[in-house]
């Protein structure tokens, strides 16, 4: 058991014939009590400091654990975000390719339609030209009405033979 200040203060020595000087003993006890008080205060201060350090260590450990858990959560969130972004990128590329393919098919269909319209226009124009050439070849040019007009000039137009044009070999409908 540790002695207390009171225990040291209350120590009494018995008096003997050839003993110690009581005043010196009391002075030494007072010095020891002063040293004891200083040491006790230092021990109490160190115990408080130790308790504070333990509490700070515990707080730091708790913070370290919280930071570690936050880092793990942040890492998971980053991985989930990266994974979701990759899935979105794959989906966006897939949709873009599908749209590009649809646009390409629409453009090809429209091109085929325009090409068919062009061929039809060429056929119609050829038919119209043939028809007009045939009419010109069948009808003799009448100049009697024109000749009856005063100051009219008579022009002679030779007949143009109509022969069907062979199909072109430069491509479809050319």
What does this structure look like?
The protein is mainly alpha-helical. Helix content is 73%, strand content 0%. It has one domain (5-136). The chain is built from three helices and no strands. The longest helix is centred in the middle third of the chain and has 117 residues, at 22-138. The model has no long low-confidence stretch (mean pLDDT 84).
Q: What overall geometry do the principal axes of the alpha carbons give?
A: rod-shaped
Radius of gyration: 61 Å
End-to-end CA span: 122 Å
Low-confidence runs of at least 5 consecutive residues: none
Question: How many domain modules?
Answer: 1
- Which class of secondary structure composition applies to the elements? mainly alpha
The SSE string, one letter per element, is HHH
Strand content: under 5%
Biggest sheet layout: none
Tell me, rounded to a whole number, the average pLDDT: 84
Q: How many strand elements? A: 0
Number of helices: 3
Helix content: over 70%
List keywords for this structure.
mainly alpha; 174 residues; rod-shaped
